[in-house]
C-alpha cells in the first residue's frame, strides 16, 4: 500500500483537509493503478511554534 505523508501548517477547515486527501488519493490511485482503498494518507500538522527556518521559529518571523 502506498503511503503519502504530508507535513505542513495546520489546515483549519475540515472541508479543505477532506479535499486534500481526496485529491491526493485519486492521483496516487491513478499513478499506481490501485483502488483508492489501498492508498494511505498521513497528515502531520505543525504549528508555527514547532518549526524553524534558518534558526528562527516561524512564529517569530514577521
TrEMBL record:
Coiled coil: none annotated. Gene3D superfamilies: Macrophage Migration Inhibitory Factor. It holds the Pfam family Tautomerase. Keywords: Isomerase. It comes from the Bacteria. The keyword Oxidoreductase does not apply. Residues 2-61 form the 4-oxalocrotonate tautomerase-like domain. NCBIfam families: DmpI. This is 4-oxalocrotonate tautomerase-like domain-containing protein.
